[in-house]
Amino acid sequence: MMNFIKYGTLLLFLFCNTKILIGQNAEELLQTMDELIAAPKDKEASIKMIMTNSSGKQKIREAKMLQKGMYKRMYRYTKPEDKVGMATLSLPGGIMWLYMPSYKNPIKITLFSKSQAFTGTDFSHEDMSGIPYSERYSPKLLNSDLDDTYLLELLPKIKRANYSKILIYIDKTYKYPIKMKLYNKSKRHSKDATYAFEKKQNYWYAKEVFMTTIKSQHSTRIILTDVKFDQNLNDDEFTVEKLKQ
Amino acid sequence: MKAKNIAKNIVSLKWVTIVIVLALSIFLGSQLKDLKVNADILQSLPNDDTHAKLLKSIAENFGGNNMGVVILETDNIYQTKVLEQVQAITDSLVEMKGISSVSSLTNIIQIKGGDDGIEVGTLVDEYELPKDVNDLENLKKDVMSNEMYRGNIVSEDGTSTLIIFTLENNADVSLVAANVIDITKKIETTEKLYYTGSPMLVSSISNLMRKDLTTLLPIAFILIALILYLSFRSITGVVLPLLTAAISIIWSLGIMSLLEYKMSMISNNIPIILLAIGSSYAIHVINRINQQEVIGDKKNISMALSMVLVPVLLASITTGIGFISFIFGAYLEMIVEFGMFTTLGTAIACFLSLFFVPATIEIIGSYKSNKNYKTEKKSFVLNKVLTHIISVLFKHSKKIVITWVIVLCISIVGIFSIERKVDIQEYFKKDNPTRQAEAIMVDNFGGTKPVFVLFKGNVKSPEVLKKMIETSEYMEKSPDIYTSMSVATLVSEINFAISGNPEIPDDIEKIEQLWFLIDGNETLNRLVNEELTEGIIISKFKSPDNDSKKIFAEYMNDFVSNNSTPSCQIEITGMPFVDITMDRSLIRSQLGSIVIALIFMILIVGIFLRSWVFGILASVPIVASIIILFGIMGLTGISLNIATVLVASVALGIGIDYSIHIISQFKQGMKLNGKVEWAIENAINISGKAIIINVISVTTGFLVLLFSEMVPLQYFGLLIGISMLSSGLGALTFLPAILILLDKRNNKNQFNQ
After folding, report:
1. Contact B122/A113, CB-based, under 8 Å?
2. Is the CA virtual torsion B426, B431, B434, B435 positive or negative?
3. Per the domain annotation, does A156 fall within a domain?
4. Whether residue A115 has pLDDT greater than 80
5. Which of B51, B538, B586, B648 is at a distance of 20 to 30 A from B496, taking alpha carbons?
């Protein structure tokens, strides 16, 4: 009887600790991924967004992107012609400024619903926000069905999370995301995202992200070119006044 | 070839007939499983009508015909529990296969201007629905202050709200509609739910049609079987007419399916009509064979057939003409298709009655002398009725004609009060939830009849957008237009939120930049085309009244013709415009089909019987019964609609058969004996029984439609029933009375001469 209690206690201890360890591993893994994505102090790139509808018709937008840290980001549109000169500035706290040259003054846009699509793309404002996943979701390690990947199941830890669940496949060696399956509020698999990461100047970055909305078969491909890191971008670059230039 | 020889050949080919009928029935019966139902009126609109064509094209290009609505009705929408239910329904519809977008109180976008910029979000916080009284009151204020919500998403009185969904282009409409009902019912709302909008309406009508077909047709079969048994008192006398009808139905619907036509809410009547016609021809053939045996000519089926061949053929040709008239005179394609397949069914029924029925009787050999005796004995009542009719006819022929003339005069007065209605609401019973949903839409959301104004030009140009606003404002001055929606409304609202100016900017660059905020928004697909060369104003028309539609059409047509320019071309269409044409066509096609049918009937009867006078005389009872029919419609307030418009021609086609049988027997009698009185008595004795059986069975068959789920079909059944009774009575009383009076007048003239 004593032996039973001893072994039982040991087993229970091991079981609980394994769970804690797995939990810790998952947290660490997600944090590592977040850190990898947010590693550069700043980022400068040309960005191309290709939106394709279910019948194959495409719309293309091009912009120059500047980013500092995780929360400051500016897009200045260069294509199509009717969008030239328009710019958006995202600042911490979900604040977004929009500059339309014809309106002279920048307009502050408060986004109350981050689940809404980012101007005609398949990305929601939350997807584009850059807020680390570890701040919004609790991870759990699952057995991956893809070679050389970890599979994390993310469940929301904040009420206003856009997705009810995200499955992320993370590269085992470099810890960047390869693929995501995103589940909407009704717990249905609603979107798929695939990432193509590349290393430049010691940083891994997603040179291409492809997001598909499963139901509408609408997709958006974001391609980054001319990427430069750590250009010591000044905070002044991310001011409302700068939007006009 | 003489009728006798044809009849002989028909009987001798009995096995060939049976094998062909069997093989075709198996083949065409197997096609029935593929027969599809389509209750969409829009698809039935003709392509040569400008308004209908434009309406169809807008529905296709802008998805206007793919919009369904769930109405949630309660005492007060502004309650957290109600909002929770709206959200639950919205979320489940968003997920549903076949639905591309959903718009409701809990997910509709809100763009608000403020001192500090603009706020973009949803009207209701999707993560935290308003709970306390202040939040709910603020929501109410937001709704009431914005036309986009007030009267569009929430009723002004706050008792009902809409969850509007758009179907994907290739969605299975019936499946989505069924799933919408299923899933919303599973949510177990405490509030009342109604469903409307084209997909729900089409699906609802399709279900009613299926229900009608599966319940009413068997009932009609059973009732007619009962009548036939009481009339003939033999299994063959019951089975053969019904079998003829059933095979006619199988063949017609099988061919319909084979040719990929769909069952419409009009062709839904085909089985019942063919049941009546198919059994009717067989009844005449069986009756004649029966009588041939009674007079001692036993087993000579070909002799009986030779006598009934011409009347049955003639009856089927005239019935066919009644139906063919729809092919040339009708506005809706579904009526044309109805005409095609009922004509085909009539031809099939005629073929089966003349080939299959005698062949089967010959093979079964069931008509034995003992049964004949029994039959005649049991038909004692009918014979007594006929004897009574004959005696009254000869005693009171003048009074009979006068009575008919009086009835006709009263009916003519009634004709002037006939109303015309083309409203879809008329299709449903008053307690039907779909009709109640329509009523809620009319009372609280400005109706359901779509009105579209199409603008061709650069949709982003200030000229086009300003013209859209001007048109909207002009349109909304009409008492029947509650609100309207266009991309110009969106642009002006965003401009207002940003600059405080509700006008459309004069600068095209400004508009192009504002577009950035609406680009990719699902609503945009319903308002502009992908190339941005066409845009529409969507609105709803409230009144079901025809005169209001005409006033509105005139009001708008003036505006359109005065404001359309080469760089901004304007066109207008919508259900009110189609309804006007449909209404006009009701009268035109009604008159057209009756006149065409009548002329051809007189011609054909005249040619077959080699006498124009007989042709005209045969048409007298049926013309009288049609006048009575319209008189009753006018006097009782039964309106002329897309179903009842069929009645006159159907009644004409079927009803003239009775006169044909009487007049052709009369002619044969005159040939045999040369005396009018004898010929009339002979004609009534020979054909009278079949006519009475026929009138009772056909009327019963059609009266079953009184239990239809669709109101116009109830009236259709009732009116055809009335027409059958009056045309049967006309053939047995009015026509012989005229013949007697004509004979008396001839005798008098001869005497005077």
Report:
1. yes
2. positive
3. yes
4. no
5. B538
CATH of the domain at A35: 2.50.20.10
For residues B658 and B735, is the Cβ–Cβ distance under 8 A?
Answer: no
pLDDT digits (tens, 9 = 90+) for B7-27: 788 888 888 989 999 999 999
CB atoms under 10 Å from CB of A8, counted, come to 10
Q: Mapping DSSP to helix (H, G, I), strand (E, B) and coil, where does residue B67 land?
A: strand
What's residue B374's pLDDT? 45
- What ipTM was assigned to the predicted interfaces of this complex? 0.76
Residue B354 structural domain: 1-34+233-378
Residue A174 lies in a domain: yes
What is the pLDDT averaged over residues B353-376? Answer: 67
At A227, list the tokens: 């990427």
Contact assignment for A103 to B510 by CB distance below 8 Å: yes
The verdict on residue A157 lying in a domain is yes
- Give B250-299 pLDDT, tens digit per residue: 999 999 999 999 888 788 888 888 888 788 888 888 888 877 665 555 55
Number of folded domains that form chain B = 4
Predicted confidence at residue A132, as pLDDT, reads 86
Chain B environment of A159 (Cβ under 8 Å): 127-128
Instruction: Answer whether A119 sits within 8 Å of B117, measured CB to CB.
Output: no
Q: Are residues B10 and B128 in the same domain?
A: no
In a domain, B439, yes or no: no
Largest CA distance in chain A: 84
pLDDT score recorded for residue A225? 93
Token representation of residue B749: 């003239």
Give me the mean pLDDT over the B32-37 stretch. Answer: 86
Task: Look at residues A174, A186, A170, A90 and name the one whose alpha carbon lies nearest to residue A133.
Answer: A170
Closest-CA distance, A203 to chain B, in angstroms, reads 33
Residue A80: asked if its preceding bond is cis (omega within 30°), the reply is yes
pLDDT confidence tier of residue A146, bands split at 50, 70 and 90: confident
Same domain, B300 and B390: no
Q: Which residue from B646, B600, B602, B603 is spatially nearest to B626, judged by alpha carbons?
A: B646
Joined tokens for residue A148: 């050389």
Could you tell me which residues come within 8 angstroms of residue B732 by beta carbon, excluding any fewer than 6 positions away?
A: B389, B658, B662, B684, B688, B691, B692
- Residue B487's φ and ψ, nearest 5 degrees, are -65, -25
Total domains present in chain A: 1
| C-alpha pair distances (Å), B131 with each of B145, B521, B749 | 20, 29, 97
Best of A213, A215, A217 to disrupt the B interface (most B CBs within 10 Å) is A215
Residue B594: inside a domain: no
CB count in 10 Å sphere of residue B179: 17
What one-letter code names the amino acid at A234? N
Q: What is the DSSP string of B696-713?
A: HHHHHHHHGGGG-SBHHH
User: Whole-number mean pLDDT of chain B?
Assistant: 85
Tell me the DSSP string of A150-210.
EEEEEEESSTT-S-SEEEEEEETTT--EEEEEEE-TTS-EEEEEEEEEEEETTEEEEEEEE
Q: Give the nearest partner residue to B127 out of A98, A111, A160, using CB atoms.
A: A160
Rounded average pLDDT over B611-620: 86
**Count of CB pairs separated by less than 8 Å, A with B:** 83
Nearest-Cα distance to chain A for B325, in Å, is: 44
Give the model's confidence band at A15: pLDDT under 50 very low, under 70 low, under 90 confident, else very high. Answer: very low
Q: Per-residue DSSP letters for B207-276?
A: HHHHHHHHHHHHHHHHHHHHHHHHHH-SHHHHHHHHHHHHHHHHHHHHHHHHTT--B-TTGGGHHHHHHH
Q: Over the stretch B682-739, which tens digit does the pLDDT of each residue have?
A: 888 888 888 888 888 888 888 888 888 888 888 888 999 999 999 999 999 999 999 8
What is the average pLDDT across B40-68? Answer: 78
Of A100, A116, A186, the CB nearest to B95: A186
**A121 contact residues in B (CB cutoff 8 A):** 520
Distance from CA of A72 to the nearest CA of B (A): 19
